[in-house]
Design brief:
The chain is mainly α. 46% of the residues lie in helices and 7% in strands. The protein has a single domain, classed as Orthogonal Bundle (434 Repressor (Amino-terminal Domain)). Helix 3 packs across helix 4.
């Protein structure tokens, strides 16, 4: 990462994954979950659902919806978040291909 000073503060360019930049474990998993939650939030707003209506439609409790919308989605798996998106009218495609390196990576592409 390239470093520079701005107003006396050391600034580093992001890698594109804030969780990895912070050194958090499971950074790729957190990045994927965050992207899914952002789409859920957009869908709830677009459809005009209350938290209670969204909870019923997604098959989770209203407190879990509240937690999710406040950024606490640790109690929800990626699979459950994808299920929520399906229930909100999203199609999800998972594409697998051989990696160009010894270890592959995850990529979330939102259309």
């Amino acid at each position: 990462m390239k470093k520079r000073l701005i107003d006396g503060v050391e600034v580093k360019r992001s890698s594109g994954n804030v969780y990895a930049d912070l050194g958090l474990p499971d950074a790729e998993k957190l990045k994927i979950k965050t992207g899914l939650v952002i789409e859920i939030r957009k869908a709830i707003r677009r459809i005009g659902l209350t938290q209670q209506e969204a909870a019923k439609r997604m098959g989770i409790t209203q407190p879990k919806v509240s937690d999710m919308l406040r950024g606490d989605f640790s109690n929800l798996s990626e699979r459950k978040l994808m299920d929520c998106l399906n229930r909100l009218g999203y199609d999800i495609e998972i594409k697998l291909k051989p990696a160009s390196r010894a270890v592959g990576h995850l990529l979330l592409a939102i259309a």
